[in-house]
Automatic annotation (TrEMBL):
Alphabetized InterPro entries for the sequence: RNA_pol_sigma-24-rel (IPR014289), RNA_pol_sigma-70-like (IPR039425), RNA_pol_sigma-70_dom (IPR014284), RNA_pol_sigma70_r2 (IPR007627), RNA_pol_sigma70_r4_t2 (IPR013249), RNA_pol_sigma_r2 (IPR013325), RNA_pol_sigma_r3/r4-like (IPR013324), WH-like_DNA-bd_sf (IPR036388)
Residues annotated as domain RNA polymerase sigma-70 region: 15-79
CDD domains per record: Sigma70_r4 (cd06171)
Identification of the protein by name: RNA polymerase sigma factor
Coiled coil residues, start to end: none
Family: Belongs to the sigma-70 factor family. ECF subfamily.
Lineage of producing organism: Bacteria, Pseudomonadati, Pseudomonadota, Gammaproteobacteria, Oceanospirillales
Keywords carried by this UniProt record: DNA-binding, Sigma factor, Transcription, Transcription regulation
Domain RNA polymerase sigma factor 70 region 4 type, first and last residues per copy: 130-180
Length: 193
């Protein structure tokens, strides 16, 4: 580990807490449960500070702890019957408008160039728009996308967590990617140009 002091870690935790809370709210859709999960993750990070090896970034390590706390909370919501059922047809009409009958892109919906995508990931405005776009997704779509792309679960694990079939998970992921791309192009690519 580097010469980073415990105070440095506390300061980093204070800075990352708002993003952790947003991430937790996205998954749990319950402010109190999200606060609890973040608090548990922060306490675990403080208690396990000596086990941080530096193989990943400190914030990545803390988000890894949060990931497991969120999965625990989601399982608890499921056991308590607080899990919202999936609405299979949510947003179907919007997706239908993006394509022609042949399956090719409608002219108004064709993807725009993002320039250098790697640079977008370093842009704070991109992440603000991404967060807003994630919150605009239907709950079930946002949850499945985040479990896959942000938390790194396999499709099989996602299906087990949310109680859906694999082909349904792939359809939801496809819808999420299309909606996010469209939202990001409107809120970031067009404004960044």
């Amino acid at each position: 580990m580097s010469n980073t002091t415990l105070e440095d870690h506390y300061a980093r935790l204070v800075r990352v807490r708002p993003r952790m809370l947003s991430f937790a709210r996205l998954h749990l859709r319950d402010h109190t449960a999200a606060e609890d999960a973040v608090q548990e993750a922060l306490i675990a990070a403080i208690e396990k500070n000596d086990s941080f090896s530096g193989r990943s970034g400190y914030e990545t390590w803390v988000f890894g702890i949060l990931k497991y706390k969120l999965l625990d909370q989601m399982r608890q919501q499921k056991r308590q019957g607080k899990w919202e059922p999936f609405d299979e047809d949510a947003g179907e009409e919007i997706l239908d408008q993006m394509f022609k009958r042949s399956g090719s892109w409608a002219p108004s919906a064709a993807p725009q160039s993002w320039g250098e995508p790697d640079k977008a990931l370093e842009n704070e405005t991109f992440w603000q728009v991404f967060g807003a776009c994630m919150l605009a997704l239907p709950d079930n779509v946002a949850r499945v996308f985040s479990l896959r792309e942000l938390m790194g679960l396999t499709t099989e694990q996602i299906c087990e967590e949310v109680g859906i079939k694999e082909n349904n998970a792939w359809v939801i992921l496809h819808r999420a990617r299309l909606k996010l791309r469209s939202c990001l192009e409107k809120g970031w690519v067009e404004n960044d140009a």
